[in-house]
Specification:
Layout: H1 3-22, H2 26-29, H3 33-51, H4 71-74, E1 91-92, E2 100-105, E3 110-112, E4 118-125, E5 132-141, E6 156-162, E7 167-170, E8 187-192, E9 197-206, E10 213-223, E11 228-240
Region (Disordered): 45-67
Keywords: Signal
Signal peptide: 1-20
């Protein structure tokens, strides 16, 4: 072998070694599969968290207070002003100066002669143009077929509840007879300015001598002088034993 051939062999070997050192192995060059999978999972999780809708928060609405209903809430002040009217005794005042009167109670429509006293409410609303300095209240047993002829004047008792003392106070002449005398037996006197509503509670019962029939009660509000009738109403029912 010539000297040139011997010199070329070491040079070629050195070239192969250099090539091997510069070329990385296949496992080192390719990224591992687990790393790629982990990156994908993290990306997906982050995307889901970003796109999720925010929870809807509902603020409860506070219920409005239920307005108290009753006669007082419906009674309004009349903008007009009239002087206190005059009239004949036990006669009505002019229609424009009258007040509202209502009776409530006896929901069954039946009153038992032998039963417990029955309570009713007499409510007055002054929606008239007159500020009355004093009024009185009346409740009386109306004519009843349970009393018989000639004038069907019922017998019984009527009591007014006195809120100041918490007691029931008996009223005199508690029945309607042949005239208007029952209007003269008023109680519970007090001022009745414009726009004021007053409710007076009564209870009544019939004398055991009364039979079955058709009866009722009359409620009224009057002025003490006269008296003059400012308003009146009635409540009918059946009387039984």
């Amino acid at each position: 072998m010539s000297k040139r051939a011997l010199l070329a062999m070491p040079v070629a070997g050195l070239g192969l070694l250099a090539l091997a050192a510069c070329s990385p192995s296949t496992p080192d060059a390719a990224p591992s599969t687990p790393a790629t999978t982990t990156a994908t999972v993290l990306t997906t999780t982050a995307s889901s968290a970003t796109s999720a809708p925010a929870p809807t928060t509902t603020t409860p609405t506070k219920a409005s207070a239920t307005p108290v209903t009753g006669a007082n809430t419906a009674c309004k002040v009349n903008p007009a002003n009239h002087p206190v009217p005059t009239a004949d005794p036990v006669a009505w005042v002019p229609e424009a100066d009258r007040v509202q009167v209502s009776l409530s109670g006896v929901p069954s429509g039946t009153v038992k002669v032998t039963g417990a006293p029955v309570e009713v409410d007499l409510t007055v609303c002054n929606d008239s143009p007159v500020a009355y300095p004093q009024v009185g209240f009346v409740l009386a047993l109306d004519h009843c077929s349970c009393a018989g002829e000639p004038i069907y004047m019922a017998k019984g008792t009527v009591q007014r509840y006195d809120a100041a003392t918490g007691a029931w106070v008996a009223t005199d002449h508690s029945s309607v007879g042949g005239g208007m005398d029952y209007l003269t037996v008023f109680t519970g006197q007090q001022p009745l300015p414009k726009g004021k509503a007053v409710t007076v509670r009564y209870r009544f019962s019939y004398d055991p001598s009364m039979t079955s029939g058709k009866g009722g009660v009359i409620g009224a509000v009057v002025t003490p002088d006269g008296p003059h009738v400012l308003g009146q109403t009635s409540l009918s029912y059946t009387v039984t034993h």
